[in-house]
Amino acid sequence: MSAPAGSISYEERVVAVIDILGFSRLVMMSDGDAAALDSVRQLLRVDELFSKFLEFFPSAQGTFFSDTFVMSMQFPDTQTFYVVREIGYLCQYLLNLGLPCRGAISAGSLYHDGQNVVGPALVCAHELEQAQAKYPRVILDKTALEYWSRDVAEGSSLDMFGPLVKRDDDGAHFIDIFSELYPANFYQWAHFVEAFEPLPPHPEFIARAMRFVDERLKIYADDGRVFPKYQWLSMQLAGYA
Predict the structure, then answer these.
(1) Which of 30, 124, 132, 155 is the most exposed place for a label (fewest CB within 10 A)?
(2) In this predicted structure, what is the pLDDT of residue 1?
(3) Domain ranges in the chain?
């Protein structure tokens, strides 16, 4: 049960805000399109998997509403690393369903308890996602990047995972959800939670993503707003072809 309003107090937390691109259109279609309705059902299954997996982290909180996922953790050492890792997996599961997403990670004052989430860090992450994420990527703000850099600093036990966050051409730092570091080093959520289908082996995951992106590039070839988003994804996948 959530805390009463009078007992709410901020904690220092790392928070990620993730929006699913094209979700509103998908929901509108789902009223008469069986394939669209099935995608919505699968999305709710991903939320169930997301929620169950976060139970393994004592300080983690996760919320899903409308087209948005929010995840946060308290600040102790390596928590930014875990947020980056799990948000990367969330984006992989969603992309595997044909649902690319965009988001941002910030750090600071936040209250997050179940479906209740509020605070300056949430506002910062939301504004960053809206103004700067632009493409289907999850970017880190300056504060979150500082914590991430501390977690994966040279000589630390996590230093090999630095490449999970890449610097884009516009200077933004984002999670590389296509990195081979994921299957080579981390167990999937579905390996911890029974009755959920895992992601395909990494080569097949990349191949599926490429096919999906190529199809969308054809569909949105004349759409100046949507086409660049899939063009960006295509460029990222080219490095793993």
Answers:
(1) 155
(2) 46
(3) 10-178
CATH number (3.40.30.10, 3.10.129.10, 3.30.70.1230, 3.30.1360.120) of 10-178 reads 3.30.70.1230
Pairing type for strands 101-113 and 138-140 reads: parallel
CA 146-105-133 angle, 5° bins: 110
Q: From CA 197, how far away is CA 168, in angstroms rounded?
A: 32
Provide the whole-model pTM.
Answer: 0.92
Taking each helix axis from N to C end, the angle separating 202-219 and 79-96, rounded to the nearest 10 degrees, works out to 60
Q: pLDDT at position 22, please?
A: 81
Q: What would the mean pLDDT of 81-85 be, rounded to a whole number? A: 96
Report CA 152 to chain centroid distance, whole Å: 19
- Give me the pLDDT at residue 40, please: 83
